[in-house]
Prior knowledge:
Distance between the termini: 227 Å
Strand content: 25-35%
Amino acid sequence: MEETNLNAVEITQANPRQSNARRIAISLLIVFLVLSVICLVGYGIKKMIDYRKWIQHMREVVEVPTFYHGIWVDDVNLGGLTFEDASAILQQKSSEKLGKIRFDLVYGDKRWTFTYKDINAYTDWDIKIVEAYEAGRKGTLEERYNRVKEIEANGLKLQTSLYYNLDKIKDDIEAIAKEISYDPVDAEIRFYPDRTVKFEITEEKPGLFLDAEEVFNTIKQRMEKGEYGEIVLVPTEVAPRVTKADLQKLTHRIVQFSTSLGGSSADRKHNVRLALSKVNGYRLDPGEVLSFNKVVGPRTAKAGFKPAPVIMPDKSMQDDYGGGVCQASSTLYNAALRANLEIVERYHHSFPVAYLPAGLDATVSYGGADLKIKNNRETPVFIRTFSSGDNVYVEIYGEPFPNNGYIECTSVIKEVVPAPQPKRILDKEGKYVKQPGGEYEYVKSRNGYKVTSYKTYYENGKKVWTKVIANDYYRPIQGIIYYRLKAEE
């Protein structure tokens, strides 16, 4: 029992020391923990303070009523400027830029001016300033801050653009071109067939042409390069199509042809001369067709024609207004052949005429047979008609044949077809035959002829070519004789 108590006393004596150690350890632990907590709390507070300072700093950087530093629009540094101040500067710069846009079109003492107002020109400075101001003002605070710092480091340079509409001055340019341009004046020739000097030629005058499209393109190119200022207009000289030298060649007499009125009655001579006078002074342009019937007109007393022998449909010769006009058409026909003009329409008589070789005549009848002549040359020809004594003449003037060229016309009778015996008709009523036993040749019997006509061209006296003009057939004509019986019959 005593041993047990001793052990208990020993144990009791050892516990106080252990308890103190524990207490110390626990205290130290508590102190450590408290200090740790204090340190952690202090560090957190410092971090919070630093973070708040950073937030404040970022806000101070990005939340400013001015443009961030490093921002430029064109050559203007907007950093630190308010929106209003920057607007005033950029607007002034835009006005100065637009004010330089000026084109002066100059021709002689004339000047036409176009400014930016005429082409509705403007710059987009008002759009670029908003874009510049908005830079760095979108996103989170940190995103904005980083963007602002990036702008400060690298810069942000925006360029304004110039807008305009040159089409606004297109009509004005065309009006200027029309004002400067004028057509050339061709030399002109006038024909006075009855004068000694038959041709009068006026001088040609060159024209001017200003290409409106070329002027527009020049302005466009200079506008794109910003090269404003004066543009001297240089129109192009336009040569006339016809010069005096050209027309001088048309005054040559290509041909003169005549037929004789000898043996004709005074009225017939009058008709031939009157018909030819209608053609006197006629100008036949390239491609134009002269219609004899149209030019001469109806053969009536009102038109000044007189009755003279005419070939009637029954082949008899009877007086009618305009008798003899066929000699006028035939004379013109031969002149046209020798000028190598194109014969569009022509008819031969019922029988050969006395004033021309067979195959070279041209009959006409108003409202019927016509003579049509076409100018197949590249230059005009001019016709002169006149009479001298018992001869009537047709002259054709124009550009001469080369190498002293000229044309001769001939005809050859290839066959003669004998006329049938005349038809005899008893004139019971005495219409044609007044005396018993008498007779009257109403239609003369005439042989028929097959004729070929030719034209031969010569240069310097040497034959160059021969061509057939026409193959004509004058049919034989059966005569008609009216007679009366003798009294005793």
